[in-house]
TrEMBL record:
Boundaries of every G-protein coupled receptors family 1 profile domain copy: 64-333
Swiss-Prot/TrEMBL keywords: Cell membrane, G-protein coupled receptor, Membrane, Receptor, Transducer, Transmembrane, Transmembrane helix
Family from the record: Belongs to the G-protein coupled receptor 1 family.
Transmembrane segments: 46-73, 80-105, 125-146, 158-178, 213-237, 284-304, 316-336
CDD domains, alphabetized: 7tmA_GPR84-like
InterPro entries reported in the protein's UniProt record: GPCR_Rhodpsn, GPCR_Rhodpsn_7TM
Origin species: Menopon gallinae
PANTHER family: B2 BRADYKININ RECEPTOR/ANGIOTENSIN II RECEPTOR, G-PROTEIN COUPLED RECEPTOR MOODY
Protein name in UniProt: G-protein coupled receptors family 1 profile domain-containing protein
Length: 410
C-alpha cells in the first residue's frame, strides 16, 4: 500500500514537473505574442479602422510607386537628373508598402506582434532603413535643385551618370549600414519592447541604444540640410528678381523686337518653358518634404506627449499618417507636374512613349552643352521664367545664350 502511495505521489510530481516545463516553454515561445501595450487600450472598432486604412494605404502605395517607377523609366520627357533620385525614393516607399505595412496591419488586427523574434528584428530594420533612404533621397533632390539654380556653372561636373549612381548608393548604404551595429547587438538591438510591446530599437545588455543617434543622422541632419537649401534657393531667386526688375525699369525697351527672327523667338520661348518646368520640379520637391514632415511629426509628438496612451485615437491617426507618407508622393506628382501626369497616362494607356518634340535631335544634353561654355548662373533664367516683367527681347536673348536642354537627360 505504501509502495502504491509512493508511486502515485511520484507520478503526480512527475506530471506537475512536466506541466511546469510545458508552461515555461510556452511562455518562452510566445514571448513575442505579448499584446502591444498601446493596442490593448484601443477599442476593437478603432483597431479595425486602423487595419483597414493600413491595407488601403499599402495597396495605393504599391500601385502608385510602381507606376511612378515604370513611368519615369519609360518616358524620356521626365527622365532627368531629379527623376533618378525620385526613382530611388519610390523604390524605398514601394519596399515599405510591400514588406512593412502587411506586418503593421497584422499588428492592428491581432492586437500585438505574432510573427516571432526573427521578423521582430527585421521589421524595424526595414522600417528605419526605408525612412532613412526616403529622407536622404529628398535631401539629394533638394541639393540638386539648389546647385542647378544657384551654381549652374558646376552643375554638369557634379551630376554625371556615374556620380548620380554613387549618390543613390550612398543613400541606401548609409541608411542601412548605420543600423548594422544595432542589428548585430553591438550598439543597442532590435527586439520586442517589453513596456510598449512593439518591435523597435531597445537597449542591449550594456543598457545602450542607438535610437537617438540614428534619429539625428537620418532625420534631423537631412531636415536641416533641406531647410537651409530651400531658404537659400528662395533668397537667391528673390534677389535675382529684384535686380531684374530694377534693370528693366532703368533700360528702355526700344524697338528690339524688330531684330528678333521667329526661329530665335521660338527658341527663347522653349527655353523659358524649360525654366518654368525646372522651378515646378523644385516646388514639387518642397511639397514632398513638407508632406513627409507632416506625416512623421504627429506620431513623434503623440509618443512624447501621451506616453500613457490616454488618447488612443491620436495614436491611431499618428500611425495612419506615418504610413500615408509612403503613398502620398505619387499623388503630389500628379497634382503638381503636367509632364508626370502625361507619363502616367502613357503607361496606363499602354501608349508608345514620345520623344521630346521640343528638343532637336542633334542637340546633346545640357551637361554636354555646358562643357562647351559654362553658364554664368541659372537664377536669372528661372526668375524670368517665373515672372516675365517686360524685359526687352535683347535682355532675354542675353540671359539665354547658354540655355541647356530643357529636360536634362542623363
Amino acid at each position: 500500500m505504501e509502495l502504491l502511495t509512493a508511486g502515485a505521489a511520484n507520478q503526480d510530481a512527475m506530471f506537475r514537473g512536466l506541466a511546469a516545463g510545458y508552461a515555461d516553454s510556452t511562455t518562452t515561445n510566445t514571448s513575442s505574442l505579448i499584446p502591444d501595450a498601446e493596442l490593448t487600450r484601443f477599442s476593437r472598432g478603432l483597431l479595425t479602422f486602423a487595419a483597414i486604412m493600413t491595407v488601403l494605404i499599402m495597396i495605393t502605395g504599391i500601385i502608385g510607386n510602381l507606376l511612378t517607377i515604370v513611368a519615369l523609366l519609360r518616358c524620356p520627357r521626365v527622365r532627368n537628373v531629379a527623376a533618378a533620385f525620385i526613382i530611388s525614393l519610390c523604390v524605398a516607399d514601394f519596399i515599405f508598402c510591400l514588406l512593412t505595412l502587411p506586418f503593421s496591419s497584422s499588428r492592428f488586427i491581432h492586437g500585438g506582434w505574432i510573427h516571432g523574434d526573427v521578423l521582430c528584428t527585421m521589421f524595424p530594420f526595414m522600417r528605419y532603413g526605408n525612412v532613412g533612404v526616403s529622407l536622404l533621397s529628398i535631401a539629394m533632390i533638394t541639393i540638386n535643385r539648389y546647385i542647378m539654380i544657384a551654381h549652374y556653372n558646376v552643375y554638369s561636373r557634379i551630376y554625371r551618370p556615374c556620380y548620380i549612381a554613387v549618390m543613390i548608393c550612398f543613400c541606401w548604404c548609409l541608411s542601412y549600414g548605420m543600423q548594422l551595429p544595432t542589428l548585430f547587438g553591438v550598439w543597442g538591438k532590435f527586439g520586442l519592447h517589453r513596456k510598449l510591446g512593439t518591435c523597435t530599437i531597445i537597449n542591449d545588455a550594456n543598457g545602450r541604444s542607438s535610437k537617438t543617434a540614428l534619429f539625428i543622422i537620418a532625420f534631423v541632419i537631412p531636415c536641416i540640410v533641406i531647410i537651409c537649401c530651400y531658404a537659400r534657393i528662395f533668397w537667391v531667386v528673390h534677389s535675382s528678381e529684384v535686380r531684374m526688375r530694377k534693370h528693366a525699369v532703368s533700360r528702355p525697351e526700344g524697338n528690339s523686337n524688330n531684330f528678333i527672327n521667329p526661329a530665335a523667338k521660338k527658341k527663347e520661348e522653349k527655353a523659358l518653358k524649360a525654366k518654368r518646368n525646372e522651378w515646378k520640379i523644385t516646388q514639387m520637391v518642397l511639397a514632398i518634404f513638407l508632406s513627409y514632415v507632416a506625416c512623421y511629426l504627429p506620431i513623434t509628438i503623440v509618443k512624447v506627449a501621451d506616453d500613457e496612451v490616454v488618447y488612443p485615437g491620436f495614436h491611431v491617426l499618428g500611425y495612419i499618417l506615418l504610413y500615408f507618407s509612403a503613398c502620398v508622393n505619387p499623388i503630389i506628382y500628379v497634382i503638381m507636374n503636367k509632364q508626370y501626369r502625361q507619363a502616367y497616362k502613357t503607361v496606363l494607356l499602354c501608349r508608345r512613349p514620345r520623344l521630346l518634340s521640343s528638343t532637336p535631335a542633334n542637340l546633346s544634353s545640357y551637361a554636354d552643352k555646358s562643357r562647351d561654355g559654362p553658364s554664368r548662373t541659372m537664377v536669372s533664367q528661372v526668375s524670368f521664367a517665373l515672372n516675365p516683367i517686360g524685359v526687352g527681347q535683347r535682355g532675354v536673348r542675353e540671359s539665354n545664350n547658354d540655355v541647356f536642354d530643357e529636360n536634362g537627360k542623363f
